[in-house]
Specification:
It is a single chain. By secondary structure, the protein is of the alpha/beta class. 23% of the residues lie in helices and 29% in strands. The protein is built from three helices and nine strands, in the order E-H-E-H-E-E-E-H-E-E-E-E. It has helices spanning 8-26, 42-50, 101-112; strands spanning 3-6, 33-38, 58-66, 77-79, 89-97, 117-125, 140-144, 150-151, 167-169. It has a six-stranded mixed β-sheet with strand order 4-3-2-5-6-7, with helices on both faces. It has a three-stranded antiparallel β-sheet with strand order 1-9-8. Helix 2 links the parallel strand 2 and strand 3 (58-66). The longest helix has 19 residues, at 8-26. The protein is globular and about 45 Å long. The termini are close together. The structure holds inosinic acid (IMP) and magnesium ion. Inosinic acid is lined by residues 40, 66, 73, 94-102, 134, 149-151, 155. Residues 40, 66, 73, 94-102, 134, 149-151, 155 line the site of inosinic acid.
Length: 171
Amino acid sequence: MPRPLIRAHRIRSRVHQLGRALARDLAGTPSPLMLALLDGSVCFVADLARATPLPDLRLHFVRASSYGAGTVSSGSVALETLPRCDGRTMVVVDDILDTGRTLAAVVAAARAAGAAAVRTCVLLDKPSRRDPTGLASADQVGFTIPDVFVVGYGLDHDGRYRHLPDVCVME
Ligand code: IMP
Ligand code: MG
């Protein structure tokens, strides 16, 4: 059963900090685009976008999946086509930075779609799992966690537990 690791109230206050920091960093940037990776970032981006007080923020969703089942990913990343974003700043939002392969692929795709600058923002970071071909670090991280498999607040295990309000460890 999932056991709480990061409680909802801690997530809430950290996400508010991240949103305010993002708004400060992006102030004056013309129509920044928040690109949320489905399905895992669904809870995080819903809260983060509402905690980012920028009048001209755009929100776009793309499905990204690293092929694999259960708690292992095989390494290849499937990504939907990104919208053109010539000259604009893109903020890629994901639930977790694990091997870093997903974000490396999305950052490359964002540049190919014309983004002038690409920032990355993740709720969770598992630095001990990083792959040499993956993105080394995200610009903004909510919480750094050890090498445990987590579910809840958008993260799933074979489709289950996404709806849990806390980030939990599977055991
Ligand atoms: P990466 O490409 O290895 O960095 O992994 C990215 C994706 O793997 C994340 O967006 C998650 O969907 C999934 N993932 C990695 N670690 C976990 C975990 O602990 N729980 C649930 N999903 C995870
Ligand atoms: Mg994901």
